[in-house]
Each structure stands twice: as C-alpha cells, then as structure tokens.
C-alpha cells in the first residue's frame, strides 16, 4: 500500500481551495485576494514568547466584543474566519450522516472544509439576482446541520436580503445553524446581523481582521454566537490557536485608535471603488459592472479569459470567476491604490476585444 492509498478516500479525491497565493503569478499589482493594498505598521509589546499564549486572549476578546456590540462570552477568536468554518463543521456535523448547505456562487471554503471532514455538501444555487432561493433551501434542508450565507457575498459583492435571512432563520430554528459570513461587513456596517443574536440562538456570525483591518497576514478571525455555541466550539479548538504576537497586534488593531484608523481606510477604499467602477463602465471590453458593498468589484467582460491572461502577463493579477455558477465571463477585481486602479484601466483600454 503506497502513501496515497493510506490516506482517507475523501482526501484523495479532494480539490484544495485555490487561494490567491496558491494560484501563483508573478505580478506587481495583486488584485485577486481582496487584501488592503498597503501595509499597516505595528510594534510588538509582548515579549513573553517563552510561554504558551492564552487560548482566548482576554484583551482581544474584550476589545472585539466592544467593537462588535456583543458580550465577551459571545466571541471566539481563531486562526482566521476559515478556522471558524472548520470548527463549526467539526462540532456540529457527523461525517457520513449530516450535511452543510451553501448557495453558489459563493466562497469556496465552505465546501472544501466540509469535504475534508467527510461531511456532505448541498448547493442550492442562488437566484438570478444572487439572492437566496428560499424554496430550494426549504426543499433540501433534511439532514442539514449548518447553512452558510455569505453577506456581503463573495464574489458577487451584494448584501443578502435581511428579510430572506430572517425567513431562513425561522425555517431552521431547532434544526440547523445559520452561519452569516460577514468578512466584508466593515464596508457596509449597517448590514450586520450581530444585533440578532439574542433573538436567534442558532445564528452564528463569522468575522475577520483580514480585509478592512488590513491584517490578512495576521490570520485572525472571530466567531460571534450565543454562549452555548461558543462553549461547544471551545471543546474542539486547538489549545493555543493564536500566537502571542498575533494576539498582541490584534488587541492593538481593536483598540479605539486602531478602529478609527480602520474606518479611515474604509472611507478611502469606498472612494477608490467609485473611481474604478466609473472607469470600468466606460471601457469597451467591459459588458457589465455589478453593484458592490465590499472592497472588490465583479465585472463581466467580453472574452474574459483572454483579458485575464493579458493582464496576468502584464503583472496585473485578477481573480477569474468563470467556473462559478452563473458567473461566465466574470472577473473579480480588488480595489487597490489609485495607481493600481489606473494600471488596470489603462491595460483594459488597450485590449482589442
């Protein structure tokens, strides 16, 4: 028996999530991972690297709870929101028995994490406007333990109708968790569901410092939920999920000064987004620019594969969404600096499509 044969069957068949860095490229304009375009400086204040860190660092939990408007007992911090996805599946889904549900086009890690653990996936494709197909969800709920809803949705950029999420929460009460992935909520804070936690014991919210907080390299995310859910996740999380430097920087980023700086960054990104949207709409090879509530733009192009490769060859790395259901011809563009946006605009104007 060779090494591959020793592995679990579902892992042998698994296609890993194609992250921006895994896809590669050798560009100098990186607009494929929805990162903040410039670095934010921090200085480490903790020098106790000879000791193991706290499992749930007190300053990080308390600062995030205050920022999110929830109680500290409703917050779990982890290695990015991606670990939160895994913890929820591990804690609530029996492999070979239960299923998770998501609505494509959406974030790819929900399916990859479920498949890794041998948990079935149910995809109820979104409607033409990328809102939830509530009837389709209702018809497919049997055996589902966790329903993932990304809002604003990656990669389409729009907020999921809050009334539809309420309907989904009523539909799943006592049957399944509803997990609202709010990775991009800082760009539309009015749309958060954090205030709904008291009303819905089965609501879970995922957050991250990777986007508006400009800390993608930190790998720090949060799960917001009622205490009963958090207590179960604490049973399956690693003993020391956050290193001391990560906790140190996260606590600083979530202090009042750090939150004010984040809001200034958001205001800048929203301004740059409008500039890029206006320019894209005037370019011949751009067929449609979709509304966005995030730090990226989804657009449909004529001959998108040729456009993608042409820009790639010029060192401008976008995210190809052609393989996602209903996104034929679509590319996703992170909102970068004005100079990066101009590089994109000039390169697209030069396309003879």
Account of the 3D structure:
The protein is α/β, with parallel strands linked by helices and 353 residues long. The termini are far apart. Helix 4 (58-68) packs parallel to helix 10, helix 5 crosses helix 9 (227-236) and helix 11 (256-280) packs parallel to helix 13. The mean pLDDT is 95. The strands form three sheets. A seven-stranded mixed beta sheet has the order 2-8-7-6-5-3-4, sandwiched between helices. The chain has 13 helices and 13 strands.
How are the SSEs placed, and which strands pair?
Layout: H1 3-6, H2 9-13, H3 20-23, E1 29-30, H4 58-68, E2 75-78, H5 80-92, E3 99-102, H6 109-116, E4 120-123, H7 134-139, E5 144-150, H8 162-172, E6 177-181, E7 203-208, E8 221-225, H9 227-236, H10 244-253, H11 256-280, E9 286-289, E10 296-301, H12 304-313, E11 316-317, E12 319-320, E13 330-334, H13 338-349
Parallel strand pairs: 1-11, 3-4, 3-5, 5-6, 6-7
Antiparallel strand pairs: 2-8, 7-8, 9-10, 10-13, 12-13
Helix pairs in contact: 4-10, 5-6, 5-9, 11-13
pLDDT below 50 for ≥5 consecutive residues: which ranges? none
Strand content: 15-25%
3D shape: globular
Quote the distance from N terminus to C terminus. Answer: 52 Å
User: What's the quaternary structure here?
Assistant: single chain
Strand order of the largest sheet: 2-8-7-6-5-3-4
Summarize the structure.
Helix content is 37%, strand content 16%. The protein has helices at residues 3-6, 9-13, 20-23, 58-68, 80-92, 109-116, 134-139, 162-172, 227-236, 244-253, 256-280, 304-313, 338-349, and strands at 29-30, 75-78, 99-102, 120-123, 144-150, 177-181, 203-208, 221-225, 286-289, 296-301, 316-317, 319-320, 330-334.
